[in-house]
Each structure stands twice: as structure tokens, then as C-alpha cells.
Write a structure and sequence with these properties.
Elements: H1 2-12, H2 30-43, H3 48-61, H4 65-76, H5 96-102, H6 111-128, H7 133-142, H8 151-168, H9 172-178
Helix pairs in contact: 2-3, 3-4, 3-6, 4-8, 6-7, 7-8
Length: 184
Amino acid sequence: MKRVVILIMLLVGDFSLETHVVNIGDYSSSDDWAVLIGNVAKHYNQDFWLIKDIFDICLQYNVDPLLMISLIKIESDFNPTALSRKNAFGYCQITPIANRDVDPKLSRYDKRENIILGVRFINKLLGLFEDNIENALRYYNAGHDYDKKGELYAKNIKKEYRMLNLLYVRDQISYGKIYRKEVF
């Protein structure tokens, strides 16, 4: 019940969802952020606060949250306990090797830390591949075989990402100023 009251207050009042240094008020108004997060949460039938947490983590690491939400949808279908044949776990399907590589102090079994690991890993890959999102996604999925594998995976994330942008992002220019807008 508290969540419903808070959500109503956010949508009706002029409250800010700002939790980091970057001013999310640049996205037309803070109400637009609440609407965007609410629409994405409803679209995937997920908790508003989970989606907001993904947005907050992405803002902290300068990663487009709609890209991460698309990745999570394709990787685990929002199942926090998903386990692959290759021992990848959680929302972002973090392997033990990726866990050690990104931050061994974080646990891939903790829901929030799994998302942090996924965001930090994709951020690292975007830097490694000089913002080539397709190669970063292919590497995220296939590792060192990314040049031979992962094409369909990247295509599925791209399709999901574009759909979210078309359906829910009202102001592409402002959104792109806040997040490193991924173009692929």
C-alpha cells in the first residue's frame, strides 16, 4: 500500500526521483521519469521499485537503463534466480568469471549486486569496444568467441531496446543527454 501512495505522490506532485549527481529534471520533468519507469515496469509486469533501481544503478555508471532492461529481459526474463547451463546466474546472468573480473567483493547471488555487476560489466565492455554496442553485447553473451557468436543475441536486445524507446521515451534529445544513448 505504501508503494501505491508513494507512486501517486510522485505522479501527482512535483517530487523528484533524483538520487544521483546528474539532474534527471533535464528529462522534461521529474514526472516524466516516474511515468517512464512506471510504463516500463507495467510493460514487463515488474515492480516499479525494481525498474527504478535499475535506472538508478545505470545512472551511477553512465549506462542507458533501457539497454540494461532489454538485456535483462533477454538474459533472464526478469527471473532473479535464473541459472544457465554455463552457470550464469540471476537477472544479468553473471558467470563466476565475470563476477571475479568485474568485482569479486560483490555477490552474483544477491539480486541488486547482480544488476550492479551486469551494469558495470556492460560499461566496461562499451569502453573496451569504444562504444560499439553490438560488439559489447556479443562479447557479453559469447566471451572471446564474440566475433563468431552472439549475433542473434545482440539483434534480440536491439529489437527490445528499440521497442522500449519507441513506446515510452517521450523526449529522445533530453533522454540522450542524461544517458549515454546507445545507437546500434
